[in-house]
Amino acid sequence: MAKQNEIVDLSFCFAVRIVKLANYLKKEKREFTLSDQLLRAGTSIGANVTEAQDAQSRKDFISKLSISLKEAKETRYWLRLLIETQYLSADTVNMKMKTLQNELDSIIRLLTVIIKSAKSKPA
Hints:
- With 123 residues, this protein is mostly helical.
- The protein contains 4 helices and no strands.
- Helix 2 (33-52) runs antiparallel to helix 3.
């Protein structure tokens, strides 16, 4: 049985939700610019995490995960902007948005721990 990788699984599931949210924003809200930014950043997290799994070195691994962390923080920015500009109403989609934000916070925390751990290991 294949060993599960929490950050790979979390970032992939998060990307699926981001794709669905971006589609909602485009179809229902007719918002294209911010939703494209959200889509790029939100799906890039998992893409870089996946790339890190086959890193050529620890430095490459840390670099890929650091990019994932930056993309996660950018995604948090776009979500916040969409809420503040009322494309996403905190009242209307409160539970779904809270869950999405909690997932993103978990991804950020986990990436931070993995990166710190990888940096602290002796060469």
